[in-house]
Specification:
alpha+beta, Jelly Rolls, HTH araC/xylS-type domain-containing protein, 4-stranded antiparallel beta sheet, Arc Repressor Mutant, subunit A, transcription
Length: 309
């Protein structure tokens, strides 16, 4: 490619691209307001969406009603309601020394999070605030009295920041809930394996029995148990088989059947691979030891009474 001549224009060598190739649209129009207790009774909600209720000033919980249901919100929490256009927000019960802030996020903006389970309840979500959200509330309360453009822009920015922080908190809480639920699934899977060692459950079978998928079961089983599902199953079967053999009361074919092997030869191969010796050697070794012990016991039983005479 040769350099551009002085009389060439750069536009001759480029094709303008549409703006939407590089720009992302933030189509979020929030409705918000701040009221002192005793100044307003009922408000008709202007849009459908997620209604956030904050207490800005006052230590006592704020009492209010959405539709026909009564709620209260503590100063260190946010209540989030899924509301529809025309519903009533009744704040007539809020005390005079309390200031309340509410803003509504359009429903479609957070529906993706609702549908994926981050927002788990269908009625109300109670979110604990943190120091950053508390600071945002105070800054919004200060800016709200001003009606200039800059204050309005700052208020919108702070509301978006508060929204982002709330979603972060919900995500964090959701991960903790999911982690606990998956731990319960792992414990349930272990119990199924241990309760009936005659069964040979595949990972897919176990996942269905406990109500999860193979990927989660494999990942979190290894994470919590320190072994894969198959390694844990094999270890449990082999240790149980060893215990049965050492009682001296079971044939190898019986032990094979009790640990889920249709053929004794398959069991013997698995046992040797796991322990390094065949199950018969353990059985005969145990029997030889037991016989020797009985001989010593019989000898002592015979000799010591003679010595005591």
């Amino acid at each position: 490619m040769t350099p551009l001549d002085n009389n060439d224009s750069f536009s001759a060598f480029t094709t303008p691209l549409p703006a939407n190739s590089f720009f992302s649209e933030l189509s979020l129009v929030m409705q918000y307001g701040i009221w002192n207790g005793g100044t307003v009774s009922e408000l008709i909600l202007p849009i459908s969406g997620y209604l956030n209720i904050f207490c800005i000033e006052g230590q006592d919980p704020c009492s209010y009603a959405v539709g026909n249901r009564q709620y209260s919100v503590a100063c260190d929490h946010t209540n989030v309601h899924l509301v529809t256009t025309g519903q009533l927000l009744d704040i007539s019960t809020i005390k005079e020394n309390v200031k309340i802030m509410a803003f509504i996020i359009p429903k479609e903006y957070l529906d993706a999070h609702h549908n994926t389970g981050i927002m788990r309840s269908s009625d109300i979500w109670v979110i604990r605030t943190n120091s950053r959200i508390d600071l945002i509330k105070q800054r919004i309360a200060t800016l709200y009295a001003s009606e200039d453009l800059l204050s309005s822009i700052k208020t919108h920015s702070l509301l978006l920041e508060a929204l982002a922080l709330q979603v972060e908190i919900l995500l964090s809480e959701n991960k903790a809930i999911v982690k606990d639920q998956l731990l319960d699934k792992v414990i349930e899977a272990k119990k199924i394996i241990q309760e009936d060692l005659t069964q040979n459950h595949s990972i897919g079978d176990l996942a269905k029995l406990i109500g999860t998928n193979e990927q989660y079961l494999k990942k979190y089983f290894k994470q919590h148990v320190g072994k894969t599902v198959m390694s844990f199953t094999l270890e449990t079967k082999m240790l149980y088989a060893k215990k049965l053999i050492m009682t001296g009361n079971h044939r190898i074919s019986d032990v094979a059947r009790l640990t889920g092997y249709k053929h004794a030869t398959h069991f013997t191969t698995a046992f040797k691979k796991y322990f390094g010796f065949i199950p018969n050697s353990l059985k005969y070794g145990f029997l030889a030891f037991h016989e020797a012990f009985l001989r010593v016991w019989e000898f002592e039983s015979f000799v010591f009474p003679l010595l005591s005479v």
